[in-house]
Amino acid sequence: MATTAFKNNYRNIRIVVLCFVGYILLNWFSPFLMLLNYDFVRLFITFITSVIVMIPIVIGYKLLDDKGNYLQVFGVEGNIKEGLIAGGVLFLAAWIFSIFSLDFLRNLVYVKWLLYIFIEVFVIDLCVQAFFFRKITTYTGWSFFRIILFYVAIYSAVALVTAFVSLLFNSEILSKIGDDLKLLNMIPMDLLLKGILSLLRFILTASFLYWLYVEWNFNLWVVVFAHLVLNLANGLTFLKIPIFILLIVTGVIGTILYKREKGLPLAIKRFWS
């Protein structure tokens, strides 16, 4: 019985990983649709790309044969009021941290732009949180950071393989690899530091959103609205500290205080083991 369960979980993990890799590749290459010179495509580009990148995820759910309707499986049936409150708190915090700056509010004037960002964030969290993280959590029982490292490893592996394949199909670039490697010593330190900080931001944001998702009982709306505010605050700083870091701290402290007030235990108890 235990052997059968292990085989089923192993099969399900492979399905999740393969479908998620398909999502990553489509998500990376879907912006090339912008090159198509059709008014229809440009008008509905956000909707079209969202449908395209979700194809592997929908296939994954079909192969996993999960019980319940799609609203339940995706977590969309969660309390949207909780999501609005969580997003509202982070929105207010971002506005305060920006010293009531209009830089944070100016993009809200462009309703169409805000709608596009919301759709993009919703699809990302649907694929990353509701599919990858939730399924890997269910099928592996791994600790928090082990799942995060697995997530980062998949992204990194796909990026490296994609870059390598691109080089193989470009003989001119491939022939200059030796010269390019020599130029590595000439990379400015500020550019290298910027790349490292971008990677750390990616890991920190993924960890925070996954933590929120689990602590709020897999309520996707909490993650979506929190993610939306993080995107709106992108690039803003407070006393030279990126506001997104302050928002993550606010979200973590706010969640812990809320659970203490309600007498609820924290859902994540294992971080390393």
What can you see in these coordinates?
With 273 residues, this protein is mostly helical. The protein has one domain. The protein is built from 14 helices and two strands. It has a two-stranded antiparallel ribbon. Helix 3 (45-53) packs parallel to helix 8, helix 6 packs across helix 14 and helix 8 (111-140) packs across helix 13. The model has no long low-confidence stretch (mean pLDDT 78). This is CPBP family intramembrane metalloprotease. Keywords: Membrane, Transmembrane, Transmembrane helix. The chain crosses the membrane at residues 15-36, 43-64, 84-102, 114-132, 144-170, 191-213, 233-258.
> Level of helix content?
over 70%
Overall, the morphology is globular
Determine the mean pLDDT.
78
Helical region count? 14
Adjacency order of strands in the biggest sheet: 1-2
Outline the biggest β-sheet. 2 strands, antiparallel
Oligomer state equals single chain
SSE series: HHHHHHHHHHHHHEEH
Secondary structure blueprint with pairings:
Elements: H1 2-29, H2 39-43, H3 45-53, H4 55-64, H5 70-74, H6 80-97, H7 102-105, H8 111-140, H9 144-168, H10 171-175, H11 177-182, H12 189-215, H13 220-232, E1 237-238, E2 241-242, H14 243-262
Antiparallel strand pairs: 1-2
Keywords:
globular; single chain; two-stranded antiparallel ribbon; 1% strand; CPBP family intramembrane metalloprotease; membrane; 75% helix; transmembrane; 273 residues; mainly alpha
In short:
The protein has 273 residues and is an all-alpha fold. It has 14 helices and two strands. Strands 1-2 form a two-stranded antiparallel ribbon.
